[in-house]
Design goal:
Four copies of one chain form a homotetramer. Helices cover 36% and strands 23% of the residues of chain A. By secondary structure, the first copy, chain A, is α/β, with parallel strands linked by helices. Chain A folds into two domains: 144 residues, NAD(P)-binding Rossmann-like Domain (Rossmann fold); 169 residues, Dihydrodipicolinate Reductase, domain 2 (2-Layer Sandwich). In chain A, strand 4, helix 4 and strand 5 form a beta-alpha-beta unit. The C terminus of chain A is likely disordered.
């Protein structure tokens, strides 16, 4: 591509997230356009292509990755095909933005890390969009400033109003807690060392035998402790809240209180953001713009393959912990030369 | 009375407020008991006396004031009889706590000021209970500390959920705005010099021809400006909020947000205090305890006759301003020797 | 221009605001690029052009407006040259986004309204960016939903931490209050009928003879009342807050409380947005994207020439009211055929 | 005592808490007076007696309990002497208000339960004052109303600005966490079944080898889970916060935000209550008034001996859990006939 030209993007998987990314690139992201749309359901691909000016459908994802009019790839397909799709992008050495999970297994995620290391250039970005949310960015800067002192504890809340009936403990870990895992690594700048999962009495709204809510306790390598309440059938709204407690103060984000109303019947308050796309729309928008800006220069600008691998490894331990009821250690493979260590939010003790 | 003995209190007028005071003295105020209950409705007096151990009914208020077993008087009778009841207490030289208004006319209020000045001792306290509310006390201390700099503006909100149908503009000024008038004098430590009343489109819930809400603009002697929204048929709750804006910062009280809930349907927030007795219960309790403590020593501990007179004079100007649509100046009679000037919250410019 | 091509934009005046717009269009707005930069200070134009890939300097603004590689114009030059620059754009019948004020006089603003009416197409958008702020949008939707009932009162706060020394009452009206004037029209959907300005004791931080803060009281045609505190030397932060009080409830925006900290020394709270570009960055971004999208179709998408004229007329009354100390009526010229009436937020009484 | 007479109270131990109780009874509690003051430090007893009109010093606590002019006893002496002092009160069959802990051992606490059961009347109240705090009362009522649905999780925060240097993990459990233990039992209406303690990296402000903060995870008999952060050297303020998460909503108390300031330098926020006596002054006052009212009728009105015993048993498990690093079950002795089960806040699953 020339300097002036738009980045030509293929979007693999155009269900809710992929269609959202295609629309965002088309209408709000500078310097990129969607040229190829792919989905394993043909009608879905056709529908999204029809409302994406300049885009054509390519039924085979690997053909899409190799197409001449494709400079970079957004992967929003089902997690189980991520592995080979990401490897195909690496094979062609083009930038990719892969929705989480990077792959569905820690082992295959590590293969991606190794494959990228062999290429010798950062090409794989993982869609941990919270890193682009203004509040997370401010919180990280506050921690890094040292004003809170050494952060010792974090308390996270992740609540969904509702989920599909089959959303079980494993999905709660891999689809929801995974975001907190990355947030911990982003905010504290170190790896997670162990996971324990405690299963309270379940809500009557969960199917028989399901564990909802759960309390996940994560410990970092240096000994910091994080509590994470994951509760996905609250009926209330989409609530993501994080409190970091440092030696010299604490900070909370996700209070999500903007318009304040007083209403007949004597209530003060406001509306809780109902959906994650509404809560994190700005984050997704910024993520895409910055990824496009970087991809035009042949690289990425955000969490990379190692971040995807580390999250996978922690989630795998989390899934084991749901079963065992015990504290499960997290084992990470060696970091290949050239892969940066997590940026430290603040000097650890 | 001896040092050990309880202060024996007569309560004149035992409608809602008087009955509340009688119950508070009986159950929660140290060093006092109600010995006499009076009301112009005999059955009301009987009912309250029946639930006030040790209290008897005295049908004539002046007989009650003069009774041997009465050391001090609480006046919660209709405003139009306050004048002669307060004078009768002054005549006997016993402490009195008079619900606002001190009297219904600025002229008669000034007569009380003069009568008390002749006695030469502070005996008349007016029931501006907000001076005992913890938040008002903190706000006054904050202003006095100088941390906000010179206070230049105040914004007040006074909203009731509902009022009786006949509650008109004059009552809005004399029963509701009067509290803000005293709050201004308490917080800013100076007199009000002029009042303007602006009448927006009225709520459809107000009777034809009534002005509800109104916007009252008050100016102090030194030139500070206060806005006061008075809106008494909101259907929402009892909201009293005050923001003071100084040269170096601002402060707001009355946010009234304690228990925070998240509820099905996606709302955050809480309950607005429904009634003024709930909102200001602590203030009334502290007011009574401190008045009793002072009365046992033969004096008062709170806003005095001059404060009642000044509020009456400002409200009279306010009532004129509703009619005239113009800025109405407040004229105050000379302050008798020995009557303290308002305590200044902060040095004025 | 063809469907595919970017909108080619000339930016007239590239001081702080114009440079911000040029940078935003260049880096974050889809479908547009800056081709021409103009400023009456040559070095300023050169500096901005140098960091705007693809842009050249055109020293004469009218030559810029007429340039072949210009499809639309952003005017961020000093207010006094807006009149002739906007007319030149209308002459060429290309879309323009003009920073407020539309012009410096109500009469010249009305000339723009008439000139546009003659063209017969909406081409002039005025930079009242608050209409694109998510909270203002939500508040307007809430009012329009009828949930608050008929809105009777509004309370606005507009505080700046600091301004240049020469920022006087007229500038406070024309540069700051003007935003509230448009917000009133946007939220309540009707014109302002009268303005009164009350001048409290001034802050010691204001130059001798300056009136800061001021209290502006605005009345709408239907009789609603708005208070606006304008205080531009608070030393605190950039605070813009609006409360709308309706028959059935109230709503407040601008609370500006996101990250909540607890800090050593015993304080809870957070940081107030320091600058208006930070507070309204999203609003400006959305404003530009939507204007570009509309301009590519040959029109605008936001407040138009009439809105600019109406704001000018209200501000002119406001400036008179500062002088006179009286209530000053607002007189509007007839609305040309085809100019839409303000969209009503809710049915008026 | 006769109906009219004040309850004559002996206060055993008049360090900070006992002196506070003596002053509160003397100045603010209706129907009681302090007649006897006792402390193992003679000068302390003398100093408090000197400012307590009508009180004399009795050097021997058991003599104080048996004194003719003592109708009821407040025990605020060191925990290690509570056991025999409470038993002496039971021996005389007079009401007692005992500061926590009831006794220092679960076994001795159970002896008190049994001794009271033999008397056959509720005489022993334990000073869990939070049960009288307006917010806890509201939260319990909200849970009991069923509006939150079945409460599944609780998150508690207990932070002190500073503690004496020797304040170790055991004291953190027994002096601080004990309040949350009672709050759990009060709010959820069931017993605690197990305790786990997780020890994060300690604050640099803690002495070498101390565990501060700690994360305590408590499980109830029915399977609800409670997280409790206990952090006693934050340097910030006294923060006690509780969130209950139910099937249909959540509720948080302890936000502790009243006066809201905006200050030079661009901060919004307010002051965190610095000391527990300030935070819970109302709770202590109400606790004492209600205990006095009940004691005059020969009984108590608040948490009883069983509540003290249950808290002791949970804390003992907590202290074991600090050591073991494991989940420690709580074993409770049988509840004697006539001892009420915990009032259920809401029907358990």
């Amino acid at each position: 591509m020339t300097d002036d030209a738009d980045l030509r993007v293929a979007v693999l998987g155009v269900g809710m997230m992929g269609a959202y990314h295609a629309a965002t690139v088309t209408s709000r992201v500078k310097g990129a356009r969607v040229t190829v749309v792919n989905d394993f359901v043909a009608t879905t691909a056709d529908r999204v292509a029809a409302r994406t000016p300049g885009a054509r459908v390519v039924p085979d994802p690997f053909e899409a990755i190799r197409a001449d009019d494709v400079d970079a790839v957004i992967i929003a397909s089902p997690g189980k095909v991520h592995h080979e799709q990401v490897l195909a992008c690496l094979d062609r050495q083009i930038p990719v933005l892969c929705e989480k999970p990077l792959t569905t297994q820690a082992t295959t995620s590590y293969e991606v890390v190794q494959a990228e290391a062999e290429v010798g250039r950062s090409l794989v970005q993982v869609g941990f969009m919270r890193r682009f949310d203004p509040e997370y960015v401010q919180l990280r800067a506050l921690i890094a400033s040292g004003d809170l002192g050494n952060p010792l504890l974090m308390h996270c809340i992740h609540r969904n109003p509702t989920v599909p009936a089959h959303f079980d403990s494993q999905m709660m870990i891999e689809d929801s807690v995974v975001h907190e895992v990355d947030a911990i690594r982003f905010l504290l700048g170190e790896e997670v060392a162990a996971v324990t999962v405690i299963k309270p009495t379940a809500t009557a709204l969960a199917p028989e035998g399901f564990h909802d809510p759960m309390l996940v306790v994560l410990e970092t390598v240096s000994g910091r402790v994080v509590t994470d309440e994951i509760f996905v059938r609250t009926g209330v709204g989409y609530e993501v809240r994080t409190e970091v407690v440092g030696e010299n103060g604490s900070a909370t984000i996700g209070l999500d209180q903007s318009v304040l109303t007083k209403t007949v019947g004597g209530r003060w308050g406001g509306r809780i953001t109902a959906k994650f796309l509404e809560r994190f729309d700005t984050a997704y928008h910024v993520e895409l713009q910055r990824w496009v800006d970087a991809a035009r220069a042949g690289t990425i600008d955000g969490p990379g393959a190692w971040d995807g691998y580390a999250a996978s490894a922690v989630c795998a331990a989390g899934v084991r912990a749901v079963e065992s009821g015990r504290r499960e250690p997290v084992q990470l493979e060696p970091r290949p030369a050239g892969v940066p260590t997590p940026a430290l939010g603040v000097s650890s003790p």
